[in-house]
Amino acid sequence: DIQMTQSPSSVSASVGDRITITCRASQGITTWLAWYQQKPGKAPKLLISAASSLQSGVPSRFSGTGSGTDFTLTISGLQPEDVATYYCQQANRFPLTFGGGTKVEIK
Amino acid sequence: EVQLLESGGGLVQPGGSLRISCAASGFSFSTYAMNWVRQAPGKGLEWVSGISNRGGSTYYADSVKGRFTISRDNAKNTVYLQLNSLRAEDTAVFYCARASTVTTFHFEFWGQGTLVTVSS
Fold first, then answer.
1. Pseudo-torsion of CA A81, A85, A86, A89, nearest 10°?
2. Does B46 touch chain A (CB under 8 A)?
3. What is the per-residue pLDDT for A91?
C-alpha cells in the first residue's frame, strides 16, 4: 500500500500569510495526487487534482505542485475562511490512501 | 446537479451488521465508479471501498477486507455497503463519493455522510 505522510499536522498563521503543506508518498505516484479542504461537520471539498489542477471555483490563492513522491499545497494570502483541515490523497492505485491531515488556524 | 444521499446509519452492537446506502442523482450513474470513505470521530479520512461502474470490480481497504461488501444497483442508482462483524473502531461517518471523471480516483462529489456507531 502507498503511505501518504503530511506535514505539519497543524499550522497557525496570520491573515495574509503564505503557508505551505507538504505531502510525501511512500512510492512514486507521478501526479496522481489530490488535495481536499474539510471544515467541521462538513464533507471534504476537492481543491486540486492531478497535483496542480485547480478545481473550478476554488480561489487562485490555492496552488499545488509536485510529482513523483513529493507534493505541496500553498495558500498565498491566508483568509479567515481558509480555517479548515487539509488532506492529500493518492489516486494512483488501490487501496486509495489519504494523508493524516493538516489543521490550519488563524493566529 | 450531482447529488449523493446516504442513509442507513445507526447504532449497532459489536459483532453486528448494518447495510448503508447511497442514492445518486443528477448524472449517469452506470457510467461512474463509486466509493465509500469514512471518518472516525475527530480523526482523518480513510478510503474504505470502491466499485467499478458495472460492479464487476470491487476494492477494499485492508482494515475492512472480508467484513464489508460493496455492491450497486444501476437500475436504482444506488450503491450499498454491507458492514458485518462490526467493531468499535468502525464507528465513523461514512461518506459516499464519486470521482470527477470515469477514469480518475479523486473525489469531486460527496454525500453528507451517515453515522455508524458500534457500541454495546
1. -140
2. yes
3. 95
Q: Collapsing DSSP states into helix, strand and coil, what is residue B85?
A: coil
Residues 6+ positions from B115 with CB-CB distance below 8 Å: B9, B10, B92, B93, B94
H-helix segments, chain A: none
pLDDT in tens, A27-64: 999 999 999 999 999 999 999 999 999 999 999 999 99
**Contact yes or no for B15/B85 (Cβ under 8 A):** yes
Amino acid B102: pLDDT: 82
* Residue A33: predicted pLDDT: 97
Q: In 10 A of CB B10, how many CB atoms?
A: 11
Q: How far apart are CA A14 and CA A105, in angstroms?
A: 8
Strands B3-7 and A70-76: unpaired
Distance from CA of A86 to the nearest CA of B (A): 10
Residue B25, class by beta-carbon neighbours within 10 Å (0-12 exposed, 13-18 middle, 19+ buried)?
exposed
Residue B65 is placed in which grid cell?
Answer: 477486507
Tell me, what's the pLDDT at B103? 82
For residue A59, give how far its alpha carbon lies from the nearest alpha carbon of chain B (Å). 16
Q: Give the Cα separation of B31 and B12 in Å (integer).
A: 33
The string of pLDDT tens digits covering residues B21-33 is: 999 999 999 999 9
